[in-house]
Every structure is written in structure tokens, then in C-alpha cells.
Amino acid sequence: MEFGITFKGFVEPDRARVLVKQAEDVGFSHCWFYDSHILWRESYPAMAMCMEHTETLRFGPCVTNPNTRDWSAAASLFGSLALQSDNRFDIGVGRGDSAVRVMGRRPASLARMEEFIHVVRALVRGEEVRYGSVPHPMKFPWATGYELPVWVAAYGPKALDSAGRVGDGLVLQIAEPSICRWLADQAIAAGRSAGRDMSGYRVMSAAPAYFGSRETCREATRWFPAMVGNHVADIVERYGADREDIPPSLTAYIEGRRGYDYLKHGQSDNAFLDFITDDIIDGFSVLGEPAEHVAKLEQLQAAGVTQFNIYLDNGDEEEIIAEYGRSIIPAFR
Fold this sequence. Notes:
Radius of gyration: 19 Å
Number of strands: 10
Strand order of the largest sheet: 3-2-1-10-7-6-5-4
Distance between the termini: 8 Å
């Protein structure tokens, strides 16, 4: 299993440089950044900075979307960062969540997301591409032929179909093994139906990790189920609430989420958290003593997860990275 960390845009530069080096030294393979330019600082300058202080760690947005930037500008940015890091750059892509919702805009359609992936990949690769209302084909004369890895964030059946057909990996912002397996199996089946070789397909579980007593861990990570609630709402809306494989607690949790404030999206000090129950917190995150982390991650691995990506926003970030290096990552080597 691979291990990653994710930063928000409020991590101070001096601290970010230390954290990424620490993570690389103890065995993490990926460093992801939120791409939500209004709620947090622009993430790509931070990625470029951190690349210069690491040698093996891979970087990328988790996740970007088709509606925030012009596609040629996005592709130029991604290709440039890949070149600067000696090809240590991936992207996660979704339809658009906080980056667009905080402006009152709607997420992109799946067709638009798929076209974005196709255009960006082709431009980074060095191919000639035309898109949208641009009258003439475009090509980057400086492109190196890099094959940009693309992870697709998906939950509903149509989005999972897209993820399986066009993505190299799947992003799931949840650490509940049975749900991860259920969703990943659908993406993999879609890819196979499209004639793709899915033997190397990757599945990311992105969620907080925290050590200590269960009560301490729950309080530190209660913000996370609120942040990803719209994705779980997609699951309930698309599949229906009266299914044996959707726990009743998920349905109740979605009902309680109505009125969620996106200005507090992903914030550990979000006051609107009363609707989050203990079983939801336990299911969504990886919590407890080191042995409990290993046991939960073994369940995720058995469910098809290939990367556990820690959302670092609970405090004790240095110690979480260190403990993963001491006790968790070695158990999966």
C-alpha cells in the first residue's frame, strides 16, 4: 500500500518544507494539496516549493476541476510542474466541489470533466488539441511526452463509470472498507467493460488519521464527515436510501447535514457538526492506537485500496507522520 498526506492552503511555507521532507524520509510516496483557491491560498506555488525540498515524493491537487481555470493554462501548469519535479506529478480531478460551490456555481457535467481530462493529458503529452470555442488547435512546443497520471473523484454510478473509463485511479474521501470496495468495484467493472486493462488501476482512500483514545480521536476528526457529506449525499441520492448495503446511519447523517456552510468547508473549527455521530466518525476515518490503524488499513487493502492519503488538519501533524513511519508503514512493506 502507498501512503500520502494532504495539505490545505493555510500551512505556513517554513512548516510545509519540513513536513514534506519528514514524510518522504519515513516512507510516504505522495503529497497532495487541496485545490480550492478562495477558501485557501493557491496550492501550486506551495507544490513547486515543496518539490525543491524532496527527491521522491509525488505531488498533485486532490482534487482540481474543469471550471476553475482555462484548460490550456491548467495543462501548462501541470506540465511545467511535472518537468520541474522530474515527472513527480499527478492530478486528481472531480466535477468541482468547494472551489466552485463557494462562488455559488455548479459543478461541471461528467462529459465536461472527461473532456477536460482528455485535453489536459494530450497537451501535457505534446499533442495538438482543440477544445471549446478556441478556433485553432493548440500544442505545447516544450512538452516532453509526459503521461500525466489522473485520479478521478467519483461516488455516483455515472461518475464511477467515468472514473473507470478515463482515470488511472479513483479518489474516495472515506475510509469505510465496505463502501470503498463497493464503489471501487463499480469503477473497475466500467473500465473492463470499456476494454481497458484494469490490473494497474489504483484506489485512494483519503481521510484523517489520529492517534489516542477513541474520544480524543473523534473530537479531533469530527469535521471530516461534514466536509465530505455532499459526496455521501450523492451515494444516497443516486442509489436510494432503502438498500441493505447503505447503512441507515448514512441516510440519517445526510438528513442532518442540510444547511451546511461551505465557508467553513474542511475546517476543524466548524461549529456545524452536531449531526455527526460517533459511528460515522469511526467509519470515515482511521483512529485509535497504532494497532487499530494497522487493522483498519488491512481491511482497506483487502477492499482494494492501494493508497491511504491522510488529511492533515487535526493538529499533531509531525507526530502523526512520525508514528506512521515508526509503526504503520513498516507493517505494509
